């Protein structure tokens, strides 16, 4: 295949462009991957696109194969699925997932790719990074049989968490969002739905994924005494004010963060990052996750697409990028 490829770069905050890439010849322990699909994670990637990564978090927010530095120019992204064109015999011709930015082809270490199970469509496999985040969250704070659980924020991560929670025996799940059209998403995932004002209270566990202060405050109101609010949101450089007197203090509530950069402590001694990602791909055999794929565009359209996702002119969960003919 051609040693030339094209990559999407954030040139300056709010402006992206396609740049040429000269690919190296892969070494014996590397693979050359031709991209079939990638996914735009609306929350994190639009934060990066608008230059909202705080200066103190530049190192923590780096993607595995990122080039450049925040705020820009930077090549960023982490939901890529492609076919191995060159590499070890056991990987050649296989469909793989990689935490790689949007690029038509790339060379990475063989250990950086995970084979997509045959029963998982390549397009759905771009959700592996999101489902991996949901897996890590539920390793951090797993529900008990029969728990009443609420997920506040029906974006990519919140929807993925709700989809996994729906599999737990006896767990009753309610998805909460300010957008009433998310009721259809909740139905597709097999969970209940409510707007914030009508959400059920007295919940054993509340998972927050709306990335808003109002959403987190509502979580503290919904959780039962001595219950836990699990915070999955990334706020960038925004400060969040919370009412930590009254109900929070007397109710002995727990507010806990979960972040995918490290394997949850409950499994860290027994599971690697690769194990966690492999599990996420296996879980994607369930077609219910197709509800998270809400749009499709060509790779060449990324410079025009990201501004519309960032300012919400184009509503989306995971927007699929196709590479046919690229």
What's the short story on this structure?
The protein is an alpha/beta fold and 326 residues long. The chain has helices at 42-49, 128-140, 156-165, 182-189, 213-222, 246-250, 273-283, 302-310, and strands at 4-12, 15-22, 30-41, 67-68, 74-75, 80-86, 95-98, 105-109, 113-115, 148-152, 172-176, 192-194, 203-208, 223-231, 254-257, 293-298, 318-322. Strands 3, 6, 7, 8, 9, 16 and 17 form a 7-stranded mixed β-sheet that branches. A 6-stranded parallel β-sheet has the order 12-11-10-13-14-15, with helices on both faces.
| Rg estimate, integer Å | 20 Å
Percent helix: 10-25%
Write down how many β-strands occur, each being a DSSP E stretch of 2 or more residues. 17
Tell me the span between the first and last alpha carbons: 12 Å
Which residues form runs of ≥5 with pLDDT under 50?
none
Round the mean pLDDT to the nearest integer and report it.
95
Q: In terms of structural class, how would the helical and strand content be classed?
A: alpha/beta
What can be said about the biggest beta sheet? Answer: 7 strands, mixed
Strand content: 25-35%
Shape: globular
Which series of helices and strands comes N to C? EEEHEEEEEEHEHEHEEHEHEHEHE
Count of discrete alpha- or pi-helical segments spanning 4 or more residues: 8
